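Everyone, describe these structure tokens:
***
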Amino acid sequence: MDEKLYALHKIDTWDLIPLPPSKSDVGCRWVYKIKTNSDGSIERYKVRLVAKGYSQQYGMDYEETFTHIAKIITIYTFIVVASVHQWHISQLDLKQAPRAWFEKFSVVISSIGFVSSSNDPALFVKCIDTSRIIMSLYVNDIIITDDDIDGISVLKTELAR
């Protein structure tokens, strides 16, 4: 937990601000998981600090989102489309991505030719001739599909830069 908190502070995950008098805070808790290998041996221990979303009130703070989160139907459709067309699917896990990165994500993606969906702002598409790259962002995970695996490699390089 100490390592996780240190990493969250180091990348400026949040700002501490006074709580407005008319608002109530949403608490958090630690969630632990043991990742195992296929033989059952322990691979690593994971810990996440998560918000207690169940304490939110509908109409007050219930629909507030603080990062890009794809709709679950978008993820399902994404996988179905990729499967039907037999496109390659790749996934990126952005470990400890700074909040500032998410705030600039849409700007960076649009600068390299991606267009955000009007139905789901966490879904991005880029058309190149007969090819198209589709990308969806869910918190700190990105899934990418394309009919050309080289296109995915180029995108990963651009994102890393």
In short: Strands lie at 28-36, 42-51, 88-93, 115-116, 123-128, 131-138, 141-146.
